[in-house]
Prior knowledge:
Number of helices of chain B: 18
CATH class of chain A: Mainly Alpha
Shape of chain B: globular
Distance between the termini of chain A: 35 Å
Low-confidence stretches of chain B: 1-14
Number of strands of chain A: 6
Largest sheet of chain B: 6 strands, mixed
CATH topology of the largest domain in chain B: Rossmann fold
Number of domains of chain A: 1
Strand order of the largest sheet of chain A: 1-2
CATH topology of chain A: ABC transporter involved in vitamin B12 uptake, BtuC
CATH class of the largest domain in chain B: Alpha Beta
Oligomer: heterodimer
Number of strands of chain B: 22
Mean pLDDT of chain B: 85
Helix content of chain B: 25-40%
CATH architecture of chain A: Orthogonal Bundle
Radius of gyration of chain A: 22 Å
Amino acid sequence: MSARVGTVVKHHLFWPLAALVALLVACTIKRPAFLRVSVLDDHLFGAPIDILRNSAPLLLVALGMTLVIATRGIDLSVGAVVAIAGAVALTFIASSPDPDSLGTVVGAIFVALGLCLVLGVWNGFLVSVLGIQPIIATLILMTAGRGIAMLITGGMITTVNSPPFKTLGSGFWLGLPVAALVAYGVFVVVAVVVRRTALGMLLEAVGINPAASRLSGVRARTLVWTVYAASGLFAGLAGLIFASNTMAADANNAGLFIELDAILAVVIGGTALSGGKFNLSGTLAGVLVITTLSLTVTVLGVSPLVTPLFKALVVIAVTLLQSPALRARLRRRRPGSPAPRVEQPAENPAQEVHA
Amino acid sequence: MTTPAPEPGTVAAPAREPVVEMAGITVEFPGVRALDGVDLRLFPGEVHALMGENGAGKSTLIKALTGVNPVAAGEILVAGEPRRFTGPADAREHGISTVYQEVNLCENLTVAENIMLGSEPRRLGGLDWRSMRRQAREHLARMGLRIDPASSLGSHSLAVQQLVAICRATVVDARVLILDEPTSSLDTDEVAQLFRVVRSLRDDGVAILFVSHFLDQVYEIADRMTVLRNGRLVAERRTAELPQRELVSMMIGRSMELLEEVDRAHDAAPERPADAVPYLQAVGLGRRGSVEPFDLELYEGEVVGLAGLLGSGRTELARLLYGADRADVGETRVKGTATRLRSPRTALAHDVVYLSEDRKGEGVVGDLTVRENMILGLQAARGWMRPLPRRQVDEIVEKYIKALGIRPANPEALLKNLSGGNQQKVLLARWLATAPRLLLLDEPTRGIDVGAKAEIMKLVAELAADGMSVVFISAELEEVLRLSHRIAVMRDRRKVAEIDGGQDVGTDDVIELIASGGEAR
Lengths: 355, 521
């Protein structure tokens, strides 16, 4: 029995899910009707639905980030790409003769996503072909990106009124928010593709040992390039959802610090920043924790001034609980629990993995 | 199983008490008894070799001494006092330093910083850089090494790094120095330099525990040996009283038969018809700064050995054939058709595979399982969109685990947790699963035990007998001679000679060729 509890606790999803449950419980204590979902105008309403909808952009960005991190990389430019996507789409709609038509909106979406894909390809080129360190390579676009967005909007906050575009961020379909349907749909498709094909294994191989992968015939360069392109594309889609939510393109504030939230979500989900093994289900759990956290702050009435501090405390708690060093220490404190499993020793003793 | 007491009077037998005495050491891992009542005595001023196959318990015994592995039973006396160390740092403080097979230093620090790390001279609350460099230079000079302490460690060869690691170990007044496979990546000159250092430390009264797979080196340097097999003590003997043949049979027994089979398979190699087209032919192939233009013909069913010292261009030549490095002159022909092998992928598409000498850096994908590592090459060739069907994967994995005797026989084990020899077998399986026509093997037997070595050599001989073309690179000339039908001799990044293998060619002939740069014949 205790062995089973042990395996449950060891599962990579345990701590993020425990944190999520704890946050939900805290909210429910403060506001007993918190988890209630009601039907209003054929739509589902309630905090859980809000969480689903609010998590959409972060989920998309974190999805790309997970794949990038799996290859030992990092993409700091996603926040800027979010801003660019919104700027492009709204400027396109605002300058078209017929902002209300579906054609205009579809055109805007394609132009914005196309540009974001190009930006992702640019990042991938810097990393995989020129061999620039990912953090530096994507820092370029992180800094330049908001300038580009500013250039597109002409320094203004572009606002438009286009019902078809508004649907993406605030519409409902089959009672569920469209934004959530899009983001979760993309997430599931990517997750299935990654794990049903050999893509996941090859990405992990490249992240764990790039040289060995190349010598094994893995197209390491193409794979790395592809994940940055995908990260750009997903960030663009997130940017469209943001823009549609507010119907305003704010080059300075759209997607601000979303790259950090995405990295946090990935880490909370149990994917190491050193690359290699990754798990998308963990990222999903991480995204839900971070989104719920923002809602909890309002429900608990924490002052907005100290919100970042509150967020940081929760994140520290989750990451500490996941830390192998801390867990080993806790285990040593409890003499009754089984000793840490020692692997059968390999013949070469200097096998510690260097992060 | 007798343990002769140290006899006074002879050179190797000091009339002193052992500085380390381990008795009845038992180490247990979940489900396995890794060591069972093993004794080990280390005397000051003596080089002691710890011998045994992979998995015999050598590393476990060392780790039991330095406190890495918990000891279930037994006694450890250091200078007569019972001790249990909490880890390598604790052991180091008590004068027991360990130098591992893979250099455990910081490549991006300077030589001086690496040597003095942990015992840095301090001044006014900061580091005293000048005296750090001075002390480092003194330590190096005492070992007869002339290395600039201010140079970065990464700029030196692996051999120099190894020597720096030993130098580092002696900083803390080591009474006991443990050298775990220190020579596995060194060439003859570098080994000689290392041994000079080891002898001078021994003469200073340091007890040295030496672990190596190279029997010749062990016989050259060791005064005393302890032989382990399957976690048990077989014997402790003085080197002078233990003939090589007896040592090998103590260590294994069965691999001698395997080697005889290798010889038989080698003899059975067929004559090649006069009009045969080589599977791969290199014409004037070369790369500036890497290897000078060379011609080489590789026929099916033939093993071509590459002999030469470390750094003579053996690896570079193989990498050019595989497209791991791009040639800037010359051409390659596959079955007579000119084909540019631009990358490993193109080579793979032509059924050419390369097993790198750098197992850890360029072969093992440690955090993936045995199964995933085995199918990596095959899957990469198919592309990510067409995953191998699970049933086929299982068949391949099961087949090679059985055929190569991989231990543990668990496809889901992470590769990093396997021993060196077993990792090598998994990497071989990765390539064999792609059904290659040309197998480039760069040091496939380095750092693995005699038994696994013999198994791999037997496999190579059989593969060639089945019609595969094989290039075999090894620092051990005897292995090259035993396996090869033809031998290309390398020196100073140049192919200097090519001779037919056979019973009448001996190591002396090849050494002569290397020494003379191919002018002897």
